[in-house]
Amino acid sequence: MTSITTKPDSSQPAAEMAVDLFDNWFDPIETEVRARAREFIEELIRGELDAVLARPRYGRSQMAGSEERAGVAGHRHGSRTRSLTGTFGPIEIAVPRARLNTAEGKTAEWKSKALRAYQRRTLAADALIASTYLAGTNTRRVRRALAALFGGAVGKDTVSRTWRKVKSDWDAWNTRSLAEEPIVRLILDGTVVRVRLDRKATSISLLVVLGVRADGQKVLLAIKSMGGESAEAWRTVLDDLIKRGLRRPEFLIVDGAAGLDKAIAAVWDGVPVQRCTVHKHRNLFAHAPERLHGEITADYNDMIYATTSEEIEVRRKAFIRKWRLKHRAVADSLEEAGDRLFTFARLPPSQWRSVRTTNAIERLHEEFKRRIKTQTVLPSADTAAMLFWALLASGQINMRKVDGWQTLATKPIDQPIDLAA
Hints:
By secondary structure, this protein is an alpha/beta fold. The protein has helices spanning about 15, 30-55, 125-135, 140-145, 145-150, 155-175, 230-245, 260-265, 275-285, 295-305, 310-325, 330-335, 350-355, 360-370, 380-395; strands at about 75-85, 90-100, 105-110, 185-195, 200-215, 220-225, 250-255, 275. Strands 6-5-4-7-8 form a 5-stranded mixed β-sheet, sandwiched between helices. α3 (about 125-135) packs across α6 (about 155-175), α9 runs antiparallel to α12 (about 330-335) and α10 (about 295-305) packs antiparallel against α11 (about 310-325). The chain is elongated.
């Protein structure tokens, strides 16, 4: 009986056996760029030290007018090897050392401003690592994706440390003043994500507030991780916006959550509110069997997408009359929304598309969840909110102006639709 073994042939050179895919893809351009990068960085740091000591290596200090300066600012004493990883890959560089004279008559070690103490990566390399993570790759996959570029110098711990550096920008964004923001409209909605709390997967709510500036540009104003969408949770978000100087908005677009409605009534009572028509559409489905969903959609869209406020009134009355007889729960659900479902009709028709729904936030939610699908559970609640913000702050997701922004200065007319059925 013969046996099959995977033991390598000892006659085969070990170097040939260890070759992996891409290992033999020698690129003279990359090799030369990395060599020149080392030379450039070393020359940059030497030039920085020459400027501090006011003389080149082995040279004397000179002042303007050929007057030699009295005394020496310090002296060189060799160099040390530092490892640095950049977008050019990992390299070893020789960093000069020097002792500088102080006013107290002592000496202190010179520290380069170009290459900080204990710095192991350039800021561009850190930005690349963070951007790869934001693109929807978990920490382990970032390591594998960037292994060829960084020569295996990036582990999952490096990715985590790099991501924590983003937190300082996140903290500054959360406390920035909003007093100078020309916000005229707000869009408010929440989404649910799973995070790890006390070593257990837990669902939390991310409460998101988008602002619309006077020129129509959408901007993220706040994102908070909360236990739910209660009135208290939303009140915390709104109070923080007001505390940071946000002006009273002229128009609000909401998802229809009861907690949000209560919070708005407490701080901005009297501001026109548009309830998201898409959320209400889904809500109607919850009150009817599936076989009626197609008919409900046809009647609902016929009403919501009518071209004039008069047509909306006529079709709303027809919807109520029909569904009171066919399936009363559907008619009752529509009536529950009141005139807030049709506040958009008080604005110029050019704005109707952008104010009917909270789709601006819904699209952000969808993109956010697409990016985090490789991580079924995020590390923490703070990480979830920070990741949502970073996708926008880094330019991974861009927001355009709202439709009909040219007529944003037009105020809503004080004439809601007739609710009589």
